[in-house]
Design brief:
Tom7; 60% helix; mainly alpha; 2 helices; membrane; Mitochondrial import receptor subunit TOM7-2-like; mitochondrion outer membrane
Length: 82
């Protein structure tokens, strides 16, 4: 397998201020789009965190529930597919 180069970090450049002139409608529309971008960023961030938590927490949760069940199985019985 070939060695990969250094990791590159991706950053979004966000412009501050209104993009239009001094027109109040352009500043209100950029405010609305700014709010939409913030909501979109928070949604993406929270879904990424939920994906990681599910990925690393699902198997341990199944093992814990299995160990607390009524006929106490051994750990080997929980991990074996049969």
């Amino acid at each position: 397998m070939a060695a990969k180069g250094p990791l590159k970090l991706k950053f979004k450049a966000k412009a501050k201020g209104s993009k239009g002139g001094s027109n109040s409608t352009s500043s209100s529309s950029s405010s609305v789009s700014s709010k939409f971008e913030v909501i979109k960023d928070w949604t993406n961030w929270s879904l990424k965190k939920a994906k990681v938590a599910t990925h690393y927490g699902l198997i341990p949760l199944i093992i814990i529930i299995g160990m607390n069940s009524d006929p106490k199985p051994d750990l080997f019985q929980l991990l074996s597919p049969f």
